[in-house]
Specification:
Shape: globular
Oligomer: single chain
Number of helices: 9
Number of domains: 2
CATH topology of the largest domain: Phosphoribosyl-aminoimidazole Synthetase, Chain A, domain 2
Strand content: 15-25%
Distance between the termini: 50 Å
Structural class: alpha+beta
Number of strands: 11
Radius of gyration: 19 Å
Length: about 300
Amino acid sequence: MIIIDPESVGCGRKVPIDRLEKFQRVFEQAYGVALAFSDFAVTSMTGGAVVTSVDRTVRFCEDYSVFVEAAVAHACNDVICGGAQPTLASVSIGLTRFQMESLEAEQIVAALATCLSSKGIQPGKFHSYVDVENSLTVSVLGAQQVEFSRLEIGDHGDIYMSKPLGAFKSAYLSTIRQANLFPEARSALRSFDKGLGAKSHMCIALSDISGFGIVHCVDKLLVRDGLNGHLNLTSVPLIEPETSTTEVECLLKGRGYVPSRLRVEGGSLSIGALTEVNGPMVALVKSEYSQNFDESWFKVGNWEI
């Protein structure tokens, strides 16, 4: 069984939101931009713009193949949200001494190679080191190919999410309980949507739910574009709804966040703060495209200028 540190699983070592915002201000004063602490960075280069992102994910479930798939997709999601297809990934892998002395180290490396190949991502630099925990740090790059719909006066629309919430929590609980991973959680953690670019013209923004939960995820999109929004937590689909009442403090990094442009109602506030790895995508969709957006996504709220 893997050893779980409740404060570090997944992307659980995130700096608290208030301190992160302070880092952004300090960086902006020193360098002129605060992009280094956003979900992704867009850099203009000869021939176009490049979108980059980097994420570190600590092992959170027994199945190493699920861990690898989730960690890679988690890093790729930010690049996709920046309007690019991931094309190159450099990886730093932390392996425990136990893994180094067994076949699992080679199995994880093989799973990583298979994962990148299946997603059409070229491998870049590969780095490995011995650590007290198994982790993957994935840096992803892609050429920006799509543009999102432009905002106009009077615009309004709906907020959609791509899949149910709670896969990471389900994996965490199954690990500490030494139980089998719930099939829907396994599927959600391994999912990867390369076709989001085709939907971008219907959206004004895309993001993924990660360390600070859906409330923070939606509110930061609204703040960025000067919008107001409404989120109904009772409309948020859940994996293993019966576990939603089981609060796990270390998975609620966004609990203290107070949204400034988002009105939240219904459901448990712990659902709104729940940490994810390779979590659902969130899209702000224009009203004229809402009915034809994607029937597999879930409408959870609305927005307006």
